Amino acid sequence: xxxxxxxxPSNQASNYQESRNQVPxxxxxxxxxxxxxxxxxxxxxxxxxxxxxxxSCTPGQEVVAExxxxxxxxxxxxxxPEYPVLPGVIIMEALAQAAGYCLMVEPERQGSLGFFAGIDxxxxxxxVQPGDVLTLKATITKASSRFCAAEVEASVDGAVxxxxxxxxxxxxxxx
Length: 175
Description:
- By secondary structure, the chain is α+β, with helices and mostly antiparallel strands.
- Helices cover 20% and strands 34% of the residues.
- Strands 1-2-4-5-6-3 form a 6-stranded antiparallel β-sheet, covered by helices on one side.
- The radius of gyration is 16 Å and the shape is globular.
- The two termini are 30 Å apart.
- The relative contact order is 0.17.
C-alpha cells in the first residue's frame, strides 16, 4: 500500500507541470522518438499511457505513432481470457493520445491538457491482439485555442482496425 502524499492539489499540479515540457520550446523533438520524449509532452503515465513511440509528427497537423500491445497487460486476463483482444475504448484512447501529442508539442499549447469532447463515426474493423504493433494516425482537421478535431485511424500491418472523428477541448494548466 502506498503512503498518502501530504501535497496539496496545487503542489501536485506544480510538480506535474515541472515534469513535463523539458524540451526547450525552441527545440522541436526529432522523430522517431520514444517514451521519454512522449512523457515530456503528454501528462499520461503508466498504466494509462498508450503510446510506445512517435514515428513522425508535423506539429498541429498530423502524427504517426505506434503502440506495442504488451501480451502481459492485466486487462487481457478479463477481456477475454480465452480470446484476448485490446478493447475498442483503449484503441480510441491511444488515438486520442497520438492526436494530443501532435497538438501539445506545438509551443503555444505546451502544458495544456486535452479532454475528449466527442467521438463520431467510430468504426471497428479488425481485432487487435496481444503482441500486435498498433499504428496510430491522426490528422488535425480543425484547431482553435480551445477546440480541436482529428480524423484518426488505427491499423496493424496495414490492415485498418478502427477509424473515427475525435473532438477535444483544450484547457490551459493553471499555475
